[in-house]
Amino acid sequence: MQGYILNLLILVSISGILATSLNFIIGYAGIYSMAHAAFFGVAAYTGALVAMHVSTSLLVTIPIAMAVCAALSLVISLPSLRVRGDYFVVASLGLQMIAFTVFSEWKEVTGGIGGLTGVPVATLFGFRLASLESFFLVALTCLALVVLIIYTLVHTSFGRSLKAIRDNEVAAATFGKNPIVIKTIAVAISTAFCGVAGVLYAFHISFVNPESFTVDQSVFIMSMIIIGGTGTVFGPILGALIIHLLPAGLTYLTFLPARDLASLQQIIYGAAMVLLMIYWPSGLIGRANVKDTWAK
Amino acid sequence: MSDTPVLRLQRVNKRFGGVVAANDVDLDLPPGVVTALVGPNGAGKTTLFNLITGNLKPDSGEITLRGESLLGTDARKSALRGIARSFQDLRLFEQMTVFENVLSVMERSALPWQPGGRAAARARREKADATIETVGLTNWRDARAIDLGYAEQKFLSLARILVTDATLWLLDEPASGLDPASYERFVNLVRGRLAHGITICLIEHNLDIVHGISDRIAFLDQGTVLAAGEPRAILNDPKLAAIYFGERR
Asked: Given this model, what pLDDT does residue A84 score?
């Protein structure tokens, strides 16, 4: 039982990092990405490969995965962020589809549909993180660090510039800001933090395969933010908690037939999203924002 | 003070398909002077602002700022060269507070830090607070821009310009919708800046406001500058009045 809960909390921590990193660009910059699962996957494969062939240290695997994700983000950022509007969404969706195909078909590197198995146990300062307790502490620390860094960033001039661009890009440029560079840096930072989550996931599950990095996963991450509250520090973590605890909670409703749980879960997600958008558009801990929601 | 124009437009043309938005426009903005652009809707006033700031590119013609061409300059570079503008629809950073709106326009570096370190950061914050006080928004300092009343939003729009070091201000209908007391405060604020070497060009539909605030008027219709000169002469011209109030030439 304790192992089940720890496992759940590790997944919540990893999802919390994913949601927090995506919230950095959605909530503070107004950049909607459908490729977060792709970056999550790239980081997981990178982490797994480095662990299997180079080093199992998190101090090696995480920085490498972060750098790979940030560099890859430039592939879509540089062309698509030059223009305003929904181009980034479309470009990111394209990248997500390409990434899934690469994960599935580049068998020599990714292992294809079967994935990479036998990812070794992670180490930190020479200690093997073999127990769930130790790994949970590391995952939780990573989540805390990511939240702290993003909280700090959004309260700096860079964060204000992001919010200014989100609110009105033309005005921001008219006052001398460089939206293209600022948005590109923001996406690179976001995907780099996504890299942290990918490495932790690869070590925790100890194998990676493409099914964990589909477009559904991207929507899943986005729904955590929407449920919790975009543009808030703790909203994405609350969203991650709810998304993971809901299926766990349903299993305690013994009167529900086990084979219907998955369908019921989907219905509850869908209904929750619709009701949230109607009655609580800023998310559960988002700022009450009736005026601008109904005025436009 | 030199009489050399701060900004000069020479034979500037801009068409949108069959619509002529700027037709061989020649216009000078003398230093330290408030020039009002006046004309009926669709005369091309805001288009001129967009051409000056680089939001639009002219089809032909030359635009110079203190003798240096602005052609090929985008909105960001125009700001860096000392041009600040407000928008008819204000375009505030709505979800940000009044303080953040004012502070943010001074933070132009794209990097996660600004040059000058802590001392410069402290100076910017103090300047933002002083500017907010100047426009009378101290009580709304921590309110979001979207939660302000219309007059307060107008003054916030002005504060964003006041706090910059820009020497040429382009104000698009800055006083429309203001009550008389707010309007008087606005005029005092704007006229008070002229002594600091600021040059102002504004678009305004309310002729009383134009008369009260401007030193010169340029009258536009269908993209053409029909007349430019002293407010009294322009506003008393019956032919221009007929155009302005809807009787075509």
From this structure: 66
Angstrom distance (rounded) from CA A129 to CA A127:
6
- Domain residue spans of chain B: 1-82+166-249, 91-164
Answer whether residue A278 shows pLDDT above 90: no
Tell me how far CA of residue A231 lies from CA of A294, B95, B105, B243, in angstroms. 19, 10, 21, 49
The superfamily in CATH containing domain B1-82+166-249 is P-loop containing nucleotide triphosphate hydrolases (3.40.50.300)
Q: Quick check: A293 contacting B, CB < 8 Å?
A: no
- The structure tokens listed for B177 are 């919708």
Q: pLDDT at residue B19 above 80?
A: yes
Neighboring chain B residues of A164 at a CB cutoff of 8 Å? 93, 96, 101, 104-105
Q: What's the number of domains chain A is made of? A: 1
CA distance B82 to chain A (A): 10
Domain region containing A17: 2-214
> Which residues in chain A touch residue B160, judged by CB atoms under 8 angstroms apart?
175
Tell me if A166 and B95 make a contact (CB, 8 A cut-off): yes
Is A260 within the bounds of a domain? no
Mutate to test the interface with B, among A175, A232, A287, A292 (most CBs of B within 10 A): A175
A219: in domain: no
Q: Which site among A150, A157, A291 would you substitute to test the B interface, given the most B Cβ atoms closer than 10 Å to its Cβ?
A: A157
**Cα dist from A194 to A17, A35, A39, A51, A199, whole Å:** 7, 11, 7, 18, 9
